[in-house]
What does this fold into?
Amino acid sequence: MLAAMPTVLIIDDNAAVAIALEVLFSLHDIAALRAASPEEGLAVLARQPVDLVIQDMNFSADTTSGEEGVALFREIRQRHPDLPVILLTAWTHLDAAVDLVKAGAADYLSKPWNDERLLATVTNLIELGQANRALTSRLQRERRAKRELEQNFDLRGLVWQDPATERVLHLACQVARADVPVLITGPNGTGKERIAEIIQANSQVPDGPFVVLNCGALPSELIEAELFGADAGAYTGASKAREGKFEAADGGTLFLDEIGNLPLAGQMKLLRVLETGRFERLGSNRERQVKVRVISATNADLGAMIRAGSFREDLFYRLNVIELRLPPLAARPGDILPLALSFLPRGKRLHASAEAALLAHTWPGNVRELKNVMARASLLAQGEVIMVADLGLPAVHVAANDTEPDRDAIAQALARAGGVVAQAAAELGLSRQALYRRMERLGIARSA
It folds into this structure.
């Protein structure tokens, strides 16, 4: 389906001006509507959507104060706060136009105007408006998806905002009630255990035990005893019988972190438990029966381990009925600031420059590193506001005085400002002209 032609509303009592603009726009595939008075222009806006307004500053005969234009702009801004407005000015009311730009007008052009500059401004604003509407629509969909997840599932208080995290959570909640093993993959420190807790909380046995065993934190000779238990005398130091994690997790969930560290003998026994629900304690011939859902996690390349002969292929496929890939924190930047704020004690807040530094850091240690950084910053900060220096991040990542915001920062500022360049520029600490130049260099308007 062809995209609708963009539409500009021209509000000017001078018919010659309106006709000239209409012809100019028609040559560049832009539709134009005309209104000869503020009242007529507001009526047009009430009837149909437009992409941009070009308005004069005076409408009554022998009036040069620009007060009518100011009143019209304020009325448009009140009724249509996201609609970009370009002012057509004469030198006698240039100051009023400049004040309106500070108040949110997109731009001003002096009469007689330069066709090339006018077209460039209009085209950029229309493209930015379309990009902003698309971004707003996407953000609304994401917020709606987040609300639905939070309303329909127990997310264990997880703090998140990024769409990449939403996709993992959606799949985790979708498979939670299915009694099948789940394998969670991803780098260390990304929060794999939290995802396992969410699966348990939304499973058919949410009140059952949730037992955790980190296979990478124990010597290989002790892992089997931890998993399956041991009778007295089963190994040196086993003076009394002990219950294993499978018995402790009976009727609930067993989370096996760092599953790649499980030795081959333990892998064989784990496979049997997954297939039959039966096992023996070390040193015992008595078979025990349990009902346990196994969720495992790893940051290792299990495929490479299979090829190297250090991980059983049959166990891999038994564990990997459902795989959840949890991205590193750097791949879900929308989570960074919400998580950082959640780690701060009450009364502490982040300076804008510290927020920029957090977003610029690559987070090789993922969420665990972020939590540690915020704990340190909370202790080092001299007051309520945490500054860049308090974070202790490598200088190469610090963007405290950066006056060159990147594409994402500009897009987010424009979204918050409803596409009004002057407001976005003020938020970013730039002049409107500097922001326009930055957008042109990044090709934002034409590639959105």
Summary: Confidence is low (pLDDT under 50) at residues 396-403. The chain has three domains: 7-113, 154-327, 330-397. The chain is about 50% helix and 15% strand.
